[in-house]
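Practice problem. Given the sequence and the SMILES for S-adenosylmethionine, write out the predicted structure.
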Amino acid sequence: MIDRCTLWLATALTLVCQAGSLAAGGSRAQALKALCGRLEIGPGAVIADVGCGEGLDAAEFARVVGESGTVLAQEIEPAKLATVVRVAAKHGLHQIVPVLGQSDDPRLPDGFVDLIYLNRVFHHLAQPQAMLRRLHQDLKPGGLLVVVDQHRGPLTDWAPTERREEEHHWTGETTVVRLAREAGFLFHDVLEDVWHEPQPFVLAFRKPAAPPPDAGDPDLPPPLDAKALVRALPIPQQDGWAAIFVGLDRGRAVLPALKEGLPPSTRLADVVLDEWALTLEELPPGAPHPGTEVLRKNNNSLALPPDMRLGLVLFVDAYQWLWEPVPLLRQLRERMPDSGLLAIVERQGPDDEPRRLAGHHRRISSRRVAEEMREAGFQLRQTLAPPTEDRCFLLFEPRTSHERLQPEAPKELRP
Ligand SMILES: C[S@@+](CC[C@H](N)C(=O)[O-])C[C@H]1O[C@@H](n2cnc3c(N)ncnc32)[C@H](O)[C@@H]1O
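Answer key:
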């Protein structure tokens, strides 16, 4: 197999050449120690360093878990693993156990590991979904998965996954969160504050202590009554307008009901977010729905047909996914007559949660939503009855140029 990560290999080779640095520590070592401290991983723990390269981090983990612990140094390249074995023996780190894996299977023992760690490996995964499902099996209940990779935000390098093992293409943070959740992980936290480099994201996930029997995201809001939700929507009455639907997770169930509830001549577009997609061709479940057209958002811009005037935009369980909502909202506002409506159905989150975490937790404060909408030229028209206890249902309308000059009277936001 050709070498795929020159930069990181160079770092690892430096380590091997200067074997003394294994003991000397340094900022990378401090970062790993701090990371384990935050996750309460210590002596006696089992850590799997998946895609460990030549073992730079595995050696540090060996010191964290001590002689009573185990570090599974896992790789798909036998030559790298041979280096790990040599260096571990030289330094008496007998708790390091080499594991040779495959592209779709890490070959770790089931239910055995406290912490699985992938440093700059996720973007090389040719079969990320299969790998994540296996990693989920390999963790003990309540065990942790840490993914350190690049870059923050949605995917921008759309190379097909099968090319990623051999070539270098960064992944996107939102893609990692999506795939980890779909594989059964709960989003836990972001940990860049302990990291020694500024560029990567450091995401921590947890396997539920009592994993549900069905695969899939263990933290979805309850199902929606799609027909009741559509009935509650004020559908604009003028002709010649189009509707936009942005729905993910449980929210996708609303698309067929929306199609049925609209006047038959209404053009309906189903938006695929780059925060979600793994490839440029991927479609969410149920797409394309008959009578709808698929539109893709990429790099903060939605490929809207030039003649499309938007009478209605509906986000269902999808608004919090937006990494940078205002540019998209402004684009939608520009295509909307003053009579247009934008509705958001979303699980409620705490007011003080940072935007990035709101997305990863799949919940957002309605106050934050209203602030973002206001920045993009909308105002709250009405708070509709929540479709479930944990969700809000907010209806916005464009602020007209006259209203934009007036100070807006605050409207109550009821949970
Ligand atoms: C950029 S290197 C990172 C090495 C190490 N984690 C570090 O930070 O120094 C990526 C490593 O991932 C490994 N890799 C790629 N796909 C893998 C897979 N499916 N399973 C395990 N390792 C994989 C490669 O062989 C390579 O050693």
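Check your answer against the key. The chain has a mean pLDDT of 91.
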